[in-house]
Amino acid sequence: MPSRKKKSILPWLFLFSVLFIPFGMNKFTFIVEDILTQAGADSVSVGKVSVSLLRGICIENLSTYKRRNAQEYYTVHISRIFIRGKIPALGSMVLGREKGGKVKRDIFMEVYSKPIGLVSEAFSGLAALGLLKEIEFNNASIRFMNKGKVNVSAENAAAKLSINGGIFKGKASIAGIVIASMGKIENFSVNLKSGDGKQLDLFDAKGKVFGGKFNAQSSINLKNSKIFGTRMHIKEVDVKQSWEQFKISSGGIEGKADLDLEIEPFRFNAFALAKLKGNFCVNKLIAVDLPLQKLPIINKVSPKLRTIQFSEVKGKFTFSKKNINFDEISGVGDVMNFKSVGSFNIDNGKIYQNFEGEFSEEFIATQLPRLVRNSLEITENGGGRFKCTISQTFQNPRVKVDKSVIKTGIKNMFKK
User: Fold this and answer.
1) Which of 52, 54, 49 is nearest to 21 (CA)?
2) Measuring CA to CA, which of 103, 129, 267, 281 is 20 to 30 A from 259?
């Protein structure tokens, strides 16, 4: 019988290599650098670019730099980016070319002026045009610098996003986010989904801030860049860490806080005008040498008030235009219970509180001078109630005793 000829596997190996095994060329590196330079980057560095027909394009060690002015600039570094889709069309979309081939926009500068707008444009455009099937990157960092200091940064970021049947979904994580004016967010992660190209949902967002854990959800209207449906729950925040970060005044506060926040719809570029409401509860709060505690009038009542502890302090508030309005704050402690209603401005430190306190029976008997004891309204449980207003600023407060306290003191003096 005639022998069968063995079929060579070389053609199959060649086809497999063309389709799946990435191959690199210097030309691809120059193309990527050229696209990003034309998109507005002041400098671009690309380590390596490799391409396979089915797996897409892989860019390694990408770094870019963009200067806004003499004092502000930002840098981006990504160890690896993997993109699968219509690469030439994606390049044209990034550049925003006119019919004549001329680039008409500076994408890198738009990061400063409309970051959410760029996100909205990317998600709605990519979903509508079907240009992207999948994108993945890891070990990415971005740093916004101002006067030689980090203003905002994100380190060790990773993400994987895909489009299937018009549905855009994915997940992202960032090891550390630093916002100079607010502090650091650690171990942040979030899931993303856009089913219609009009709205991007961010859900199961979680991370750590000031030693506490948070979870949140939000959505972005991809047509007008409005952020809405934002809710956040924060558990066991270290109050001492946050106090030291914001440096509101002298003295110190310790404790663990839980917060629930709800933010009204707002545009990203108008975040300073955002309105929110929420409630908080601080457990085992200790206040030491706050400006209010060092006032002469407080020292005349009792030097023991320079350090005061509460098992719980809780309240509800609204926030708008840097002003916090407290519906009511209440505290429970061994020395004193209290209720307070008023406001506080985080920009200029102005404070106004209608304060009603009640010293415990033991504290009245052992720590208060006779004149002060006589000025208090005795309660059913043997405590002593007083009222006052706190005004001016948190750092330089003014306490005005209510007339009822003075009347009680005079009345009790004549009785004696």
Assistant:
1) 52
2) 267
* Nearest CA-CA partner of 336 in 297, 375, 381: 381
Please say whether the beta carbons of 111 and 66 come within 8 A.
Answer: yes
Contact yes or no for 399/388 (Cβ under 8 A): yes
CA distances from 331 to 126, 278, 282, 336, 337 (A): 53, 17, 9, 8, 5
Most confident of the ranges 51-55, 113-117, 373-377, 379-383: 379-383
28-33 — which CB contacts under 8 Å span 24+ positions? 28/57, 31/91, 32/59, 32/62
Is 289 in contact with 306 (CB distance < 8 Å)?
yes
Contacts of 267 (CB under 8 A, 6+ apart): 116, 224, 225, 226, 227
pTM for the model stands at 0.82
Q: Give the closest residue to 43 by CA, choosing from 57, 29, 63.
A: 63
Amino acid in the structure at residue 273: L
Q: Which residue has the tokens 């060092």?
A: 294
Angle, alpha carbons 61-64-70 (nearest 5°) = 150
pLDDT tens digit string along 1-45? 454 554 544 444 433 443 444 444 567 788 888 888 988 999 999
CB contact at 8 A, 164 and 170: no
User: Residue 407 — pLDDT band, cuts 50, 70, 90?
Assistant: low
